[in-house]
Amino acid sequence: MGEYNYLLNKDLLINCVKHGNIYFLQKALVQAAFDKMLFREEDVIKEILTSLKRGYCTNFILNIISLIDISVWKNQPLQQLVEILHNYVLDEYSKNNLLLSSNPLLSITLACEILGKIADARRKFEIECFEIRQNILLLGQMYSKKIGDEEFYEQIIMSRDFMDRTVIKIITENNFEALLDEKDPKAERVMGMIWLGKEAALCDGDIMGYSNLFHIIQSKTKRVNDRREGGTSLMDIVTNFFQFNRGLNYDFQYRFRTQSIQFYFLKEFICALLMLVIFQYINLRYLALFSKATLFSSAQDGSPIDPLVNVENSIKEYWDWSTPALVLSGALIFQHALKIWFNMLSDLRIGLDKWTVIDTLTAVLNFSAAFLIKVIDKNTFLTSRKEFIDYFMLIVLTVSWLRYFSYFLVWRAISKLLLTLIRMLGDTLVFLFLVACFILIMSSVFATLY
Length: 450
Prior knowledge:
Elements: H1 10-19, H2 22-30, H3 42-54, H4 58-67, H5 75-90, H6 104-121, H7 126-146, H8 150-157, H9 167-174, H10 185-196, H11 212-218, H12 234-238, H13 255-259, H14 261-289, H15 292-295, H16 307-345, H17 354-375, H18 386-405, H19 412-427, H20 429-449
């Protein structure tokens, strides 16, 4: 706030909350302009809780609470906040303050998120907050089912909070799956629209009427007609008489593709497959170049060759094959660096999701593998210590495959099965541990007796 920082005091904060200065408070709280300790003041907490209890500016107050650090509050005001949110569940459906707000789904998601923060800040409220959150989510699920207008549903589900997060993003970040039931056609349509691109329905032209090259490849060769009006030009023959269809909309060439998550996913999936093939081939080259048969081989005339010379030749050839992998790994690291740089210079943050972490891990491991082969002592490849290098290369290859398989989590038909299998394995870990203990004990008894 520059030279006006001295004005950011308790009185200004209370006045803004009381009179609903949305724009100022949004910018100030996002920039953390107010001193964090101001939110411990009893007068500030009292005004926030009083305004929330009145229920006439529910979205506004919940946005404020979601942006401040409520962990600095004492137990008593936290208890009061929990009770206020609990009263929302007890109210009648037609008189519920959450459902009477300007955007009920936004209020419900923010309320559930706040309950999660309270549970993390004070373990004594954990069970109570969890029960209230489940009831509020059921209330939101009931409200969503009662919405008949799909355009209105899209409007409220795509609205944003003070941190510029859509309701869908808040739901996905906090795993509020009950608010996006896949059996609900409205939610299904909105998710499909986001995946395909909002303007996908505006595209009524296909590639055949737009691409000259595609027309040449796909269409049959036409015979030259000398009686054609205006004659036949060389370009007509080369393009096989292609005519651009101007009656259709081809705006997807820019507008649609830039908004389509599916289009970006396909490109990422193809690039990941290409990188996997390269990494796999390099690993196979490692097995061939550093096998015992290669390292202890002799010349074509049968004369012996010093194994160290074979090691040097194998390292040189492996390094040449590793160059494409190093370039691709450098691109992955550069992509991660760009995200970090963007987050440092922009108010809009890009989350470091699981795919970014796996990409970076894959790149670092491939860099490490290439430089490990380059700098390690050559005698290591001629001793039993080479097994440790083999294990490390196996880890690199496994992570490369995991990076590729992680894209199947976005593939709807496969992701359901994968997530189910992962959950099943997690639930059976205790059973597997007991079985392993039983086998260990029985093997000891069997070895002792026999």
